[in-house]
Amino acid sequence: MTAHALANNTIPEATKPIMSSTVTQVDAAVDPITDGPLFPSTLISPEVISLLPTDYTIRPMRRSDYNRGYLDVLRVLTTVGDITEEAWNQRYDWITSRNDEYYMLVICDGADRVVGTGSLIVERKFIHSLGMVGHIEDIAVEKNQQGKKLGLRIIQALDFVAAQVGCYKSILDCSEVNEGFYVKCGFKRAGLEMAHYY
């Protein structure tokens, strides 16, 4: 932009931002510097992207997903609690500082609302020549979005990310009632989960 344009507080037509009717209120208030993707979008399987329903997108989590209903989707899965936006931002920053460990993605509908999510946590080991294992966690799909294979696409996308970042396997825990779903996703029973809650 020229000094003349700045001084006159005008913006030449060629440099004006293109405004789309699909820009949401969330997008209008988002800072692109602090709201970048949690990890590179190139790690998401092009095949999975192509298999989503029309107008649905899959992408890395962003800070602004707090306002897109991310926590509401997790409430389908388990107890979440009352998390303020400030607390969300603190946790998001902590996760961002470990961007080679945490790969959290979301599926959004045509209105840019989060309707599904899942996480991959990469564990670095001494065994298997300093190998890495991908732990798939927190797979959740909004109740009125179930039946569209979104859960399957999330699992496929996370499994692809695990392979891309060098994991030698992906593992997950599930209840027996969900075992059939995960078998359809290519997983097989490989032991028994034990837990000690605090």
Describe what you observe in this structure.
By secondary structure, the protein is an alpha+beta fold. The protein has a single domain, classed as Gcn5-related N-acetyltransferase (GNAT) (Aminopeptidase). Helix content is 29%, strand content 18%. It has eight helices and five strands. A five-stranded mixed sheet has the order 1-2-3-4-5. Strand 4, helix 7 and strand 5 form a beta-alpha-beta unit. The chain is globular. The N terminus is likely disordered.
CATH architecture: 3-Layer(aba) Sandwich
Order of helices and strands: HHHEHHEEHEHEH
- Please identify which CATH superfamily we are dealing with: Gcn5-related N-acetyltransferase (GNAT)
Query: Roughly what percent helix?
Result: 25-40%
Structural class label: alpha+beta
Pfam family, one: Acetyltransf_1
Family: Belongs to the acetyltransferase family. GNA1 subfamily.
Subunit structure: Homodimer.
Membrane topology: Peripheral membrane protein
